[in-house]
């Protein structure tokens, strides 16, 4: 039973569409300084990361209404990763907070 629940929790709650990353994220990946896959997985499963309760509720509502979804992850003390999935679920973008 616990395994079935674990599988349900890890299933994506929405489609990612095309996954793209900004130049800043790409540079960190190429340098071996960031593996964005676990953060993307968290985003797609509805773990919005380091958001306040109001933003979390907005994302939860957006799952039903079809609005844009936003997650923020503090990867290191100096590195914050943002992930944004567009309202139509056509594109998910990984970017540095400084690139917004």
Write the layout of secondary structure elements.
Blueprint: H1 2-10, E1 18-21, H2 23-30, H3 37-44, H4 53-65, E2 69-76, E3 79-85, E4 91-96
Parallel strand pairs: 1-4
Antiparallel strand pairs: 2-3, 3-4
Q: What order do the SSEs take from the amino end to the carboxyl end, as H and E?
A: HEHHHEEE
Q: What's the alpha carbon Rg, rounded to whole Å? A: 14 Å
The mean pLDDT is 91
> Got a strand count?
4
Secondary structure class reads alpha+beta
Shape: globular
For the biggest sheet, the summary is: 4 strands, mixed
* Poorly predicted sequence stretches spanning 5 or more consecutive residues: 1-8
User: What is the rounded distance between the termini?
Assistant: 42 Å
Report the portion of residues in β strands: 25-35%
Strand line-up in the sheet with most strands: 1-4-3-2
Helix content range of the residues, please? 25-40%
Helices, by number, come to 4
Protein name: Type I restriction endonuclease subunit M
Organism: Acidovorax facilis
């Amino acid at each position: 039973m616990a395994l079935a629940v674990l599988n349900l929790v890890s299933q994506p709650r929405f489609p990612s569409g095309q996954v793209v990353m900004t130049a800043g994220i790409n540079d960190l990946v190429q340098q071996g300084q960031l593996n964005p896959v676990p953060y993307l997985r968290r985003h797609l499963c509805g773990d919005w990361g380091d958001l306040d309760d109001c933003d979390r509720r907005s994302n939860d509502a957006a799952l039903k209404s079809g609005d844009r979804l936003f997650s923020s992850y503090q990867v290191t003390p100096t590195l914050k990763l943002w992930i944004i999935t567009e309202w139509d679920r056509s594109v998910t973008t990984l970017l540095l907070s400084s690139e917004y």
